[in-house]
Structures are given as structure tokens and as C-alpha cells.
User: Which sequence fits this backbone?
């Protein structure tokens, strides 16, 4: 697209912020600034470095569509390779000059047709268009366990892994059994002197292979056509659709099939009947985000590993005291206890037009029209924003679809067809009412578990429809839902 004099600011330099930077440059913006609170790019893949960190989306599908990577070493990529991939993308697309590190946005306000921002160091900047690419799961959730601060050993959250602490030969307790806790147990079972997994609610485990790509395979993938063929789009896309259908309808064929695979995995992988029962979830498969693991059941049966389902009474100087009175002596406690999923770009003061304030708009929880735009916050767009699709599929793909939608607003703004675009309040309310009703039909709501998908009212805060509906919604804005203001010259 031709150059124009508009400026855009992106908050966040993770996967979605990098995408936005590339696309804004392509769209001819005279100036693009990407502000990042940390000292390097990467988002999730920068923050999480725990042993065993692996993406459960097939490697070749976990890339931008315009920048495939023939060099992945494994079917499911280790976190460090993903971080390296994003660093490569930043270099290749010349984004370094757009990046501003150690700059946390503290306020944003729409004044006289422009977004005015302030950062933690007092620096200010302004732009015509503002993009929030701040990620979903970035604020660690620390458990409310008595005595947490009294532990004399090493204790850290999974997203703040302390690599100065050696795990070899140590007695380790891992609290939490989402994908993170499961991956850590699998990685450390053979290394630790003892590893205990503290589990309140066992989860269903989907078996998955995670082999290496051979040198010959990687060489062949240098040919884009060979790689395209190997990616088996038809199978992958129908799998994503089937998965989202299984969320929407827990009686669907796909839900039954996935449930059966998980049940068989438990039956066939765990030989001790007593351990098997302690590992058996009491909720419907897919109620939590499904855990894919090639080796958790093997790891928890390792002679050095133990499953602890007795509740935690408190943490003491030397370890964890369970409710049966036993003290489990430990050197390291890992808190794989998840994240606060409702933070998004907060904490920051966010003010739109006509006195609109994000704190008021989100008083009852984060919401947005189709997860992307906010009424009275003109020319502001979110990638992976509230109530968008989050599940066992690529969030890069989700962000790219959102970008193709956002690009259509940006097009109107840069061509001067409109100066301010935002959805009407009624459009967002209608969307939210429909979304909440649909969310109450999903397995997240009906499946009998209390996952991080549920908001403070117990309503799933996620996209409650199929992937194909999301793609269709993102294909073009419904313009009558938007207020397009043209200021007089
Ligand atoms: P999570 O799924 O939210 O799991 C947190 C775990 O901590 C749960 O097992 C929870 O138990 C437990 N917990 C929380 N507070 C506790 C307390 N006070 N006492 C005992 N246990 C407590 O967090 P996560 O594993 O970090 O994963 C976050 C999201 O990222 C998940 O959706 C996960 O699937 C995803 N993820 C994806 C990948 C990938 O490969 N793409 C990798 C890692 C994570 P209860 O269930 O009993 O509350």
C-alpha cells in the first residue's frame, strides 16, 4: 500500500504485536512504534522458560502464514525454538527500529482525534491508531496457601523459572496440573531425586506423538510446496473445527471421540489401579483446555515421582504439610498455578471519547465487540482480546484472522473515508448477550469443572462458537454495527 502520514502505536511485542508491526509497515504507515514492558520480544515465549516447555499446536501450524519455518526440529516445538523463530521474524521484517523496550504503557487517552500515551518512565507518545497486543495469560496467579512465604527452599512460579537453581538431585514439589505442571513433571521425573505432583483436580490427558523431524525431512521442507503438502491443511483444519464443535456441543461425535481417546489413554497407560483412580478426572473431557502429553502418565509412574492428591494444609519452612498431617520435605516448590486471565492491557488508565473509561466499561469483566473493538474507543483494536477464541489451536492463526478484520477499518482510516471508527454500544451489548447465552451451552460451563475460562460470575469468558464462525465473522465488518465519524476539515 502507498505511504501515508498516519502513525500507529502497538502495545506489546509478543506474537501479536510483531504481527501488527509487520502488517502496519506493509499498510504504508509513516511511523509505527511498538512499546514493550520487558527488555526483549517474545511475550509468552519470553516469559515461560520452564523445563519441558512445549507448544501443543503442531510446529508447522504454529507460525505466521507468511513466514513458515521449515526448520522446526520436532512435531511439537520446544519453547526456546519458538522464541528463536520470533526473533528471526523481527530481524527479517526489520522491526528492530520500531521496538521500544522497558516501556510499560501506564495511560492512554483519546484526545482531539488522537491516542495520547504515557509510559512508566514518564515518556509520552501519540498516534492515530492504537493496537493492544498485550496477550491473555501474562499475570501469574500465586496460590492463596498459608505459609507460602515461610518456605526456606527455592520457590517460584512456572512463568518466573529461576535458572540459577539446579534441579538435579533435588526434592521438588510442583503445585498445579494444567499443561504447565504436566510438562514440568514430564521433564523432571528422571532428573529430580524426588518429584511430587500436587493435584486438586486431575485432568484428562490426550496422548500425542512428539517425534523429531529427520534432517532429510527438514531439507525437503525448504521447498514450500513440500512443506505445504506435509502440513495436511485439510486434516488440521477439520481437527480444529471438530475440537471447537466439541466445546460448543459436548454430545457431538467429536466430543465423544476425544473423550474416548483420553479415557483409553488413562486405562492403557497407568498400570496400578489405585493410581489410575486417583488420576481419573471427575469432569467432562474438554471442560479444561485439553492437555496434550506424550509422556505424563509414564512420568508420574517413575520411581522418583509421586502424585499427591491429599489437599495442601500449608507450606512450612521445610516443605508442604498436607491435610492428613504429613510433612513432605522439599528443596524446591514450583507454582504451576496459572494466570489471571482477565488482565489484558491493564493495569493502565484507559480513556476513550465522551468520558468513556475502560474501568467502567469492564466493571463486570472484560468485553469487546467480537473480541476486537470497544464502543467510544475509536481507532483502537485488540489482538487476542477478551472473549476471543483461546483453545487447543494456534493463537497466531486467530491473530491473523483478527488482523484481516482490523485491516478493513484501518483502510477506511488511512484513505480518509472515516476519521474515527468504533462499534456502537448496542452492537457490543447484543454480541455480549448472544455470547453469554452460547457460553452457557458449552462444555466449559456444563462440564463440571472450574477452569480459568470461567469469569467471576462463572460464565466462560471465551469464544463459544466454532472456529468457522470466527473465521466468517472476521472476514468483513458488519458496517451498520459501527459508527464511522468524518470530522469536518
Ligand atoms: P492452568 O491451566 O490455569 O492450571 C493451574 C493449575 O494450578 C490447576 O491445576 C489448578 O488446580 C492449580 N491451582 C491453582 N491454585 C491452586 C491452589 N491454591 N492449590 C492447588 N492447586 C492450585 O495454568 P497453566 O498450566 O499454567 O496453563 C495456563 C493455560 O496455558 C492453560 O490453558 C494451558 O493449557 C495453556 N498452556 C498451553 C501450553 C501449550 O502447549 N500450548 C503450555 C502450557 C500451558 P484446579 O484445577 O484444581 O483449580
Assistant:
Amino acid at each position: 500500500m502507498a505511504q501515508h502520514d498516519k502513525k500507529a502505536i502497538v502495545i506489546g511485542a509478543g506474537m501479536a504485536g510483531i504481527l501488527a508491526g509487520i502488517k502496519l509497515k506493509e499498510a504504508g504507515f509513516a511511523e509505527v512504534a511498538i512499546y514493550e514492558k520487558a527488555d526483549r520480544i517474545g511475550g509468552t515465549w519470553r516469559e515461560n522458560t520452564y523445563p519441558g516447555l512445549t507448544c501443543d499446536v503442531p510446529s508447522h501450524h504454529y507460525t505466521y502464514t507468511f513466514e513458515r519455518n521449515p526448520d522446526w526440529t520436532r512435531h511439537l516445538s520446544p519453547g526456546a525454538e519458538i522464541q528463536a523463530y520470533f526473533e528471526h521474524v523481527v530481524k527479517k521484517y526489520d522491526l528492530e527500529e520500531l521496538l521500544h523496550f522497558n516501556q510499560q504503557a501506564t495511560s492512554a487517552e483519546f484526545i482531539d482525534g488522537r491516542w495520547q500515551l504515557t509510559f512508566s518512565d514518564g515518556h509520552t507518545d501519540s498516534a492515530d491508531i492504537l493496537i493492544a497486543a498485550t496477550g491473555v495469560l501474562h499475570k501469574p496467579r500465586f496460590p492463596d496457601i498459608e505459609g507460602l512465604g515461610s518456605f526456606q527452599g527455592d520457590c517460584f512460579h512456572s512463568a518466573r523459572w529461576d535458572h540459577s537453581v539446579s534441579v538435579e538431585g533435588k526434592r521438588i514439589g510442583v503445585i498445579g496440573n494444567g499443561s504447565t505442571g504436566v510438562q514440568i513433571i514430564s521433564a523432571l521425573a528422571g532428573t529430580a531425586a524426588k518429584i511430587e505432583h500436587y493435584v486438586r483436580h486431575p485432568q484428562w490427558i490426550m496422548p500425542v506423538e512428539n517425534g523429531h523431524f529427520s534432517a532429510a525431512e527438514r531439507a525437503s521442507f525448504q521447498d514450500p510446496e513440500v512443506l505445504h503438502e506435509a502440513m495436511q491443511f485439510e486434516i488440521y483444519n477439520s481437527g480444529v473445527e471438530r475440537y471447537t464443535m466439541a466445546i460448543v456441543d459436548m454430545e457431538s461425535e467429536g466430543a465423544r471421540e476425544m473423550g474416548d481417546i483420553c479415557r483409553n489413554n488413562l486405562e492403557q497407560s497407568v498400570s496400578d489401579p489405585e493410581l489410575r483412580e486417583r488420576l481419573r478426572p471427575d469432569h467432562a473431557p474438554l471442560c479444561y483446555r485439553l492437555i496434550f502429553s506424550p509422556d505424563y502418565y509414564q512420568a508420574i509412574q517413575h520411581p522418583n515421582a509421586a502424585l499427591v492428591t491429599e489437599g495442601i494444609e500449608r507450606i512450612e519452612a521445610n516443605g508442604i504439610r498436607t491435610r492428613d498431617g504429613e510433612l513432605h520435605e522439599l528443596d524446591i516448590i514450583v507454582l504451576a498455578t496459572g494466570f489471571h486471565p482477565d488482565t489484558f492491557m491493564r493495569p493502565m488508565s484507559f480513556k476513550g471519547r465522551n468520558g468513556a473509561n475502560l474501568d467502567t466499561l469492564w466493571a463486570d469483566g472484560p468485553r469487546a465487540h467480537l473480541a476486537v473493538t470497544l464502543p467510544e474507543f475509536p481507532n483502537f483494536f485488540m489482538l487476542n482480546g477478551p472473549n476471543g477464541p483461546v483453545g487447543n489451536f494456534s493463537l497466531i492463526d486467530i491473530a491473523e484472522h483478527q488482523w484481516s478484520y482490523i485491516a478493513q477499518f484501518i483502510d477506511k482510516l488511512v484513505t480518509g473515508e472515516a476519521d474515527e471508527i468504533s462499534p456502537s454500544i448496542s452492537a457490543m451489548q447484543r454480541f455480549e448477550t448472544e455470547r453469554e447465552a452460547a457460553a452457557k451451552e458449552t462444555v466449559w460451563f456444563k462440564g463440571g469443572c472450574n477452569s480459568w475460562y470461567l469469569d467471576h460470575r462463572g460464565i466462560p469468558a471465551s469464544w463459544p462458537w466454532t472456529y468457522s464462525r470466527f473465521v466468517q465473522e472476521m472476514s468483513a465488518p458488519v458496517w451498520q454495527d459501527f459508527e464511522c465519524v468524518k470530522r469536518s476539515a
The longest strand covers residues 105-111. The mean pLDDT is 97. The two ends are 24 Å apart (CA to CA).
